[in-house]
Amino acid sequence: MIIDCHGHYTTAPPALAAWRERQIAALAGSAAAPSPADLRIGDDELRESVEPNQLRMMDERGIDVTVFSPRASFMAHHVGDFRTSVAWAALCNELCARVAALYPERFAPAAMLPQSPGVDPATCVPELTRCVEEYGAVAVNLNPDPSGGHWTAPPLTDRSWYPLYEKLVEYDVPAMVHVSTSVNPAFHTTGAHYLNADTTAFMQLVQGDLFADFPTLRLVLPHGGGAVPYHWGRFRGLAMALGKPPLEEHVLGNVFFDTCVYHQPGIDLLLDVVPARNVLFASEMIGAVRDIDPCTGHHFDDTRRYVEASALSAEQVAAVREHNARSVYPRLDALLKRQGR
């Protein structure tokens, strides 16, 4: 089996974006706020949005199941206030859950949180609870920078995040640390902000002692961890200077990286530096990079090719493609077992 741990609903029917535009317009006082009931999307529209897109490409690439969450750039936690984010997250999470219900053997739902700048992260616990208990969410996306590129939130090791971590541990659900749209013109959203955030989150975890308090908490850093593999020696040296244990003891029992790295040398470096048990297969398709690489003739995000062309043993490839995800996402593993897989 091949499990893609990083998929977003980037092809949602246009009615979703239209509802969001009405919500944003209402914040400016130029229109009435829409009701959640105003969003009407039928099952056939959902099928039409994924069958020629994600499902087609999953079939072409041999991907069996995708962990499916709302579009990352659409989370946009900087827009409006907490009430804005609550309404928006609920709609987006419901759509992902509906897609998973239509294709229960192909998609497993994951949820966004209704974060808002300056608002206590504990306010996100009810939506986390709802998505796990009602929708069977197997993971959540946790935004370390709800401000949209201005980094006003405390580091992930700050105790203000602890109520969320406590609930994640209670449910045995991992969080993918994933930012959203950048409104800071210095940071391109997918080319800079995403990768900066992956790197920043890792350093925050190196600086702190979060996993002493939450030894079973699991965090997934997407996009191959940003600059982390390339600068592994720097992080090892900084950990020593900070008086921390070796990275293998300090963070690698709890932190995992995905394979959303879009060229062979990058995947090779990731798999050479980071232990194979800490790497999960992912493609993030259909995502930020959708073109065909003229050097290879294949899509940049066809990451299965890179993993299978790496120097890993067959056993390690199987771990990256399937077994690591089952371990990091135990609710996904339970779902697959109920399906006889």
How is the biggest beta sheet arranged?
A: 6 strands, parallel
Poorly predicted runs are none
**Class derived from helix and strand content:** alpha/beta
Overall geometry comes to globular
Alpha-carbon distance between the termini? 9 Å
Task: Write the element-wise H/E pattern from the N-terminal end onward.
Answer: EHHEHHEEHEHEHHEHHEHEHHH
Classify the helix fraction into a percent range. 40-55%
Main-sheet strand order equals: 4-5-6-7-8-9
Strand residues, percent: 5-15%
Give me the Rg, rounded: 19 Å
Number of helices: 14
* Average pLDDT metric: 97
List how many beta strands DSSP finds: 9
Offer a concise description of the structure:
This protein is an alpha/beta fold and 341 residues long.
Describe the protein's architecture and organization.
- The protein has 341 residues and is of the alpha/beta class.
- It is built from 14 helices and nine strands.
- A six-stranded parallel sheet has the order 4-5-6-7-8-9.
- Helix 2 crosses helix 4 and helix 13 packs across helix 14 (330-338).
- The N and C termini lie close together (9 Å).
- The mean pLDDT is 97.
Notable traits:
341 residues, alpha/beta, 6-stranded parallel β-sheet, 3-stranded parallel β-sheet, 14 helices
